[in-house]
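Internal tracking record. Fields below are filled automatically when a chain is submitted to the structure queue. Please do not edit lines marked as system-generated. If the sequence contains nonstandard residues, flag them in the REMARKS field before resubmitting.
Queue: standard
Priority: normal
Entity type: single polypeptide chain
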Amino acid sequence: MDSGDTPFDPSGYFRLENVALWECSFQRDIEYQLALHRGRTEMQSRQSVRAEAFSAVYERDTGEVGLLRVLVTFGVRMMVRHEGDAKQLLHAVEATFALDYAVLAAPDQVELVRFLTVYCPDQAWPFWRQHVYDTLRRASLPVPTLPRMRNGSRRTRRIARIRPFGDSFAGPSSSYAPPH
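SYSTEM-GENERATED OUTPUT FOLLOWS
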């Protein structure tokens, strides 16, 4: 990207070949009790990316191709606040997903960094969200709404102000009901 005017299109450089769960962990330190912990929990999340380049030969093919394996690690943990500033871990879920890309052409360094820090986590995000949902539901724990981290940042944006749209949207409405 020379001028920054043209958006980066990774499809000219990489083709996604596979997404696989590489490693995962679940840790529960104390039992979650709704009456005791409601309103006193805090979610912390993290994300990291590392990449390795390989050359590979596919089955029934004779030529070598460049492969880029990107390992995207996500983590979320729920903490309970006690008196003062003390916090205790309730539970944590972490997972690393391996994204294997065929290398079609070599991007410049700026495009490669953008690909690794923005595009790859976006590709792994649906797998992460499903993993957290499945893990916490099987553990009989509440499933939080996961914040999406952007541009490698660990900070999530907070809403500063909300105002109604007026009459621009009038979809069907329903009342909230407790889960069964």
